[in-house]
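notes to self, project folder thing:

trying the whole complex as one job this time. last attempt i did each chain seperately and stitching them together was a nightmare. two parts in total, labels are on each line so i dont mix them up again. if this works i'll redo the older ones the same way
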Amino acid sequence: MKLLKVDTVNEARSRLMECCGLMMPQTEMRGLLDAAGCILAEDIYSKENIPPYRRSIMDGYAVRSKDLGAAGDMIPTMLKVTGEVLLGTDSSGLKVEPGCCIYVPTGGYVPDGADSVVMVEYCEPFVSGMLAVSKSVSPGENVVQAGEDITEGGILLCKGRKLRPQDIGVLAATGITEIPVFVPWKVTVISTGDELVSPDQTPGRGQIRDINTYTIAARSMAEGFKLIRTIAVRDDREALKEALETAKSDSDLVVISGGSSQGKKDMTAELIDEAADHGVLTHGIAAKPGKPTITGFDEKSRTLLIGLPGHPAAALMVYEQILISLWRSITCCEKERTVRVIIDANVPSAPGRMTFQLVKLSGGDKPEAYPVFARSGMISPVSEADGYFIMTENQEGIRAGDMVDVHLWK
Amino acid sequence: MKLLKVDTVNEARSRLMECCGLMMPQTEMRGLLDAAGCILAEDIYSKENIPPYRRSIMDGYAVRSKDLGAAGDMIPTMLKVTGEVLLGTDSSGLKVEPGCCIYVPTGGYVPDGADSVVMVEYCEPFVSGMLAVSKSVSPGENVVQAGEDITEGGILLCKGRKLRPQDIGVLAATGITEIPVFVPWKVTVISTGDELVSPDQTPGRGQIRDINTYTIAARSMAEGFKLIRTIAVRDDREALKEALETAKSDSDLVVISGGSSQGKKDMTAELIDEAADHGVLTHGIAAKPGKPTITGFDEKSRTLLIGLPGHPAAALMVYEQILISLWRSITCCEKERTVRVIIDANVPSAPGRMTFQLVKLSGGDKPEAYPVFARSGMISPVSEADGYFIMTENQEGIRAGDMVDVHLWK
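result (full assembly):
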């Protein structure tokens, strides 16, 4: 096993990113509603103009604007009603001749000859088939031009877009019902530690319930990953090795979550080194909290192998900053939006290390936040916090009143 | 059918809210990972102290701090090593006597007698079983006290919390594995309109593909609702009536999405009035866009019946502001966080109406946004936008440079 120095967070990311060139996520075609929330795997162009023909945005009469001249309340203009557009039927044979008009409902086809629509509220029909119009219109008024919403050949959505409801709407509008999306990572979470018991058990003296398996599994699911399984194993080399082999067979990402004591982490590092044909890539990152992080890559099975720190806050922040950030990079997905707030207390950084600081947003009107401190192993401050901000390796802490960019928890 | 005046958005919300007293969502117990993303239906208290015993946050030696006095590099203090705490085993029989110390790994039980832990880095073991300690410690140093993370009887999570990964972690830590959550609404989306064809069809002249069914269904799913079905019906009274009856039999919420022309909306209103034993509650809201919104409530089947405007932007914003806002109110769920930004252009409001204005956030470092204008029926501006802000009924528009609170799209 190579001995590696502690990496910065960016170095750890880069080492994984290089390997990920070898494991680009697969893509698949999904139907409209199945694609919602997935990440688009290709740029999508429209093959059509939307609307395909000129549409009225009002219930009204299609007219030639110059026929109305200076029509107004006092001097209405009389037009002859020569037809009616019915929604859902082909009205392309209709034409508005000079001095005439045709009724058009909202969303209806605007017949040839007309250049605008006058709202029904300004129109008074007479039995004779004539219409008194008491308002003039500009050319194009109340009409959406063909292709004004979406132009044929134009780009609809870019690769990497996490598909929101209205994006699904745009795809529906243009008749694109099979959508290429990235297949979400399949994830196995292995927890290890003789002191760990499952949450439904009462821990004996010296024991503690497993937390990280559940936070990491839930965080994975929130990102859209598919949780294949969780496995709990004792601190037993053979059992852990077997669990790793099982996980490698069907997962893209194997997360090993365990205690954080030195002896244990050595075993995780050794096992990852054995299981990964590229070996351990990073053994320890310059992060606070989060140092005991191990990464590896197995090219044969195309699996990322990650040992997370035991501290629940660290495990979650490292998982986001290293793994979820990697997933978003390789899928070209937009980064999660951060929220800029004023921090209301001095916060020290850890020199030479990237510092993740939990914060809670203040309830008030102003964008303010205060730091939440989690001692090692604590979970309740992580739940109390709304998110965290990052101080870089060279940053000498934050002063009360400074602005920080908060990564909000999912 | 009663004739109702146009309601403000708040009036429409209140009328629905009153009825919802009669249809509080049901609750159910879910396992830890199945509860992730759901809304907690009760306050949850801890039945235990976490940690249940004093734990070390370091690999080190449990000591009596006064034994170390002014121990330092130059003059180490010698202590006798009398034992070792093993993770996962009962170490409660161990005790640190004066002049002695016991090895404790990270997360391990801190034995009686000791009041602190000195990091292993400051300790030099001798073959004689003695330990040279080159640093003094304060009482409590490197020790998490019993109950310091979570106190027995203390509140863990409040009703209405949308359970995030770390909340699942807090529940796991305290052994709460069956969690009471609100059963998400079951939703049927009915689209109606002779001009509508399904997205996989090529619309003929006068036809258009159905958009709103897909945006509303996807938005419902993003909120955690269960989509029971989508039904497409022609503008046929009997067919629509039958679809409504089917939907009422198994859905909490029935959304009718269709064209927005006056004639059609009248049919929707009449049918909702017939199908709902409380009748139509709101027929038209003072919103721009979004006026042709209809709400009703059927007490017998405990179903909300909603007719949404046809304009895709309006349908989505009204659905969020009326229905999803209602769901969050009755489940005590926190409102979606808004983002405060500077708007870079003047935006007019519609006097007397609540105005929903689409915006796109600027890419830059500053929290800025610009308005996106969607003409009636357009979908691409809705997809281009990152969200929208609201101008109230009495607000006279926004000036460039004003701050607005943006509701970000899901």
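what i see at first glance: The longest strand of chain B covers residues 77-84.
need to look closer tmrw
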